[in-house]
Design brief:
Helices cover 30% and strands 27% of the residues. The protein has 424 residues and is α/β, with parallel strands linked by helices. The structure holds shikimate-3-phosphate (S3P). Shikimate-3-phosphate is lined by residues 20, 92, 164-166, 169, 190-191, 311-312, 335.
């Protein structure tokens, strides 16, 4: 896929459904009794992996362009899968399903693509084993493939060393099947979609500061869920509108859950012109439209408890930092190393190729803004967020940029390039 410098971006874009919320809607719908109807579901490859896994476990799921219908069979209604469950490229599918599988009465094997087979699973194996789960990394490297043999579970109070919604959710989901209360305390609050949605399905979930807890054996009831647009996808249009001079873009229906909105706070601190319009609150997940105008940006320092609220947006924030005056520092973000690619390395390598002044650190990067970018060949490393971040950078760079394996955007945003092209 090739890009050149863009004329001002103008118009509106409707953001596809939130990936994290779409996964959870399928999973919790499968465990609920009765019908769950999901609108604005994200038809990205990751969420389709979740659908495929639950179909393999006997759940009927109807898919149309607008709606997903999940015929839930209750907490104990899943069937043993005949084959390995294929989680594709999806960390959320792999880790959350592991929590559910730990509490079943059957044995299952989970595996995914080459990237999934390198991502750390010890972070879920440890707490699930503490709960009594039998979970084994078949290659002995604490990565997938994982064999999970259902076992009686008991509640624990788990202190997670990482702020990770995938870890928290895996433990809470296992807690549905455990004896007694299960709680997870994190070093900083990660996205709370599991807590919000499980509560609306009827689970007894509570949060207090950095701790989320759950009681077992609720009666989960099918729900109607309208998925808000994904702020992680909106981030690319936000960034593009900010750095391409003369742009004015209306980004419609963006989820602004406070555990996810760090990019908006950072952009405002950088001096971005963003107006919040049409705020609405649906089932505990707030959303609004964002009117974004190109702006003169200044550098920021990003770290601490802000990091989990913008972890997936850091690649595109690094791009923004190249267009800001001053030096931006990103710290406390070592989690970037264990995403779909090592995002410290892949961001720094590709920004350097475009002429940016950037340096990797152990837990983030330092970016000296104000040095113009030029076109380059960008290796996406098959990481959707790297491909989209550098498509944005290319719109404000001199000359031509070529993105390799650009179609990896199908993971979270199949129509990304078409939507971007319509604005430029
Ligand atoms: C996600 C949690 C985050 C995020 C990922 C989606 C989720 O991962 O990076 O894209 O849906 O729970 P971690 O839990 O590993 O931080």
């Amino acid at each position: 896929m090739k890009f050149t410098k863009s004329t001002p971006l103008k118009g509106e874009v409707a953001i596809p459904g939130d990936k994290s919320i779409s996964h959870r809607a399928v999973m919790f719908g499968a465990l609920a009794e009765g019908l769950t109807e999901v609108t604005n579901f994200l038809h990205g490859a990751d969420c389709l992996s979740t659908i495929a896994c639950f179909r393999q476990m006997g759940i009927s799921i109807e898919e149309t362009a607008d709606t997903i219908l999940i015929h839930g069979k209750g907490l104990h209604g899943l069937l043993a899968p005949a084959d390995t469950l294929d989680t594709g490229n999806s960390g959320t599918t792999t880790r959350l399903i592991s929590g559910i599988l730990a509490g079943q009465t059957f044995e299952s094997v989970l595996n995914g693509d080459a990237s999934i087979q390198k991502r750390p699973m010890k972070r879920i194996m440890t707490p699930l084993s503490m709960m009594g789960a039998r979970i084994e990394s078949l290659r002995g490297n604490d990565c997938a493939p994982l064999k999970i043999t259902g076992a009686p579970l008991h509640g624990v109070r788990y202190q997670s060393p990482v702020a990770s919604a995938q870890v928290k959710s895996a433990v809470l989901l296992a807690g549905l099947y455990a004896e007694g209360e299960t709680s997870v305390t994190e070093p900083a609050v990660s996205r709370n979609h599991t807590e919000i949605m499980l509560h609306s399905f009827g689970a007894d979930v509570r949060t207090c500061g950095n701790t989320a807890s759950i009681l077992p054996n609720p009666r989960l009831t099918g729900q109607k869920i309208e998925v808000p647009g994904d702020i992680s996808s909106a981030a690319y249009f936000l960034a593009a509108a900010l750095i391409v001079p003369g742009s004015e873009v209306l980004i419609k229906n963006v989820g602004i859950n406070p555990t996810r909105d760090g990019i908006l706070r950072v952009c405002r601190e950088m001096g971005a012109s963003i107006t919040f319009l049409n705020k609405k609150e649906g089932q505990g997940e707030p959303a609004c439209d964002l009117l974004v105008k190109s702006s003169d940006l200044k550098a920021v320092s990003i770290g601490g408890s802000l990091i989990p609220t913008l972890i997936d947006e850091l690649p595109v924030i690094a791009v923004l930092a190249c267009f800001a005056s001053g030096t931006t520092v990103i710290r406390d973000a070592a989690e970037l190393k264990v995403k779909e690619s090592n995002r410290i390395d892949t961001v720094v390598e590709n920004l350097k190729a475009m002429g940016a002044h950037v340096q990797a650190t152990d837990d983030g990067m330092i970016i000296e803004g104000g040095h113009p970018l030029h076109g380059a060949v960008i290796d996406s490393h098959l990481d959707h967020r790297i491909a989209m971040s550098f498509a944005v950078a290319a719109l404000a760079a001199e000359g031509e940029t070529e993105i390799l394996d650009a179609d990896c955007v199908r993971i979270s945003y199949p129509d990304f390039y078409q939507d971007l092209a319509r604005l430029s």
